[in-house]
Amino acid sequence: MRDVAIIGVGSTNFGKNQKGLLEMAVEACQKAVSDAGVNFKDIQCMYVGNFIGEVITGQALIGAMVGRGIGLGPVPVAKVEGACASGGIALRQAMLAVATGQVDFALAAGVEKMSSATTEKVTSALAGAMDINLDGRVGLTFPGFFGLCFRAYMQEFGVDEKYVHSVTVKSRANAVKNPICYLRKPVTMDEVVNSYVVSEPLHMYDCCPISDGAAAVVVCPAEIAREYQQKPVKILSAVHTLGNTRISDMSNLTAFDATLRAAEIAYSQAGIGPGDIDVAELHDCFSIAEVIDSEDLGFFKKGEGALAAHAGETSINGRIPINPSGGLLSRGHPVGATGLAQVYEIVKQLRGEAVNQVKGAEIGLAHNLGGAAAVCTVTILQKMV
Amino acid sequence: MSNQLTFIKCSNCGKSNLPPAAVCRRCGSERLFQLSTERGTVYSYTRTFVKPEGWKHHFPYVVGVIRLDDGTLVTALYESDQAPPPAGEDVFLYHKGDTMYYGKTGSA
Question: Are the Cβ atoms of A144 and B98 closer than 8 angstroms?
């Protein structure tokens, strides 16, 4: 298998978007293809991450619809779905098409339209990722699942909830400078704690907002990347794991097997450890998710992630900057797009072009988690010198 | 209150599986048998204030995660008006229709 590099990235702004699902996807693809210095007719296959497009908008066959929207020829196009990990999966599939030698130029896109439906409708649609005969039947939603994790975490490690809320404060501070983000006003700890309780102990500001958006990435063989992009980024590893689909298969709610396993394999394939990561975009659908993810990825010991965040270790100038973009908490979580929006930010960081630039960033990590930790992708990227 | 809950228990690793389980969902063993149980302790719970479309039960509602004696976690609804029992409390599990519930031991 040959090495693969990212030569183009593109993103819409995230938030309530007037554009429809397909239009947003086309916009992101146009930006990525232009950034890569290629034409649409050079794209030899495309994978589109999307989760609830059909449920919310009625539009199915999304891969083909986006493909025709950007004028692709008679090439392979498919939607890929792993709930919230759909974007990360799309990137890996595009990477594999190039790595195996099937194609030279592949496009990974992700898109979601969520603001056109009621909160209850969106909540139900997302909750389809639960096992509907078990956790779903007792009304478990995503805020419910992570509310359960939050309480379990506080009990197991004796950590006060304010340390977890501090993740939101950090993320919103990062969002101020990032025009892609939906929520860009900073918040104080008091404002987080006084915001509406969604599912105890999660308050509204601990939860990613419902948002629309799209992002896209173009990949090609690393050996020709410099012909197209002055600052190519190499994919050192792109790992995709199956975790648990129901709480009754988990032994606790404070660590996620899908992430633990994906991280182990990704670091091993890249020949590095967590200490070598300069910047990370991980799956902060809720503040407690960022805490658990940061530990599962090896940045902190179990039980110490929230304390470390509160102490500033994950800020842009901290020991391990996490979600310098503002993360899902500020950007929002248009599900299919998130995994690629994370890669967009890491690529910008490694090019030295990020709005919240981490000094000297050379190796970055993107972590995308689907369902109640049912599916995970971990992608490790390196600046090519 | 209706019947005890039936799990598919694994003789190899001891896990209590909920169906479907052609083999043990943890260790893959085919040495399975049925077991009924009705008690555990509270591991975690959350009171939820955003309901999914079509939610017909009480609202806001409490979802709990109950740990059985063998360590298996089970999700269940709590329907009492009393405050939900904290972590570590003994509870009993029961079915109403096809939905699993839990209640404080001694309040059956």
Answer: no
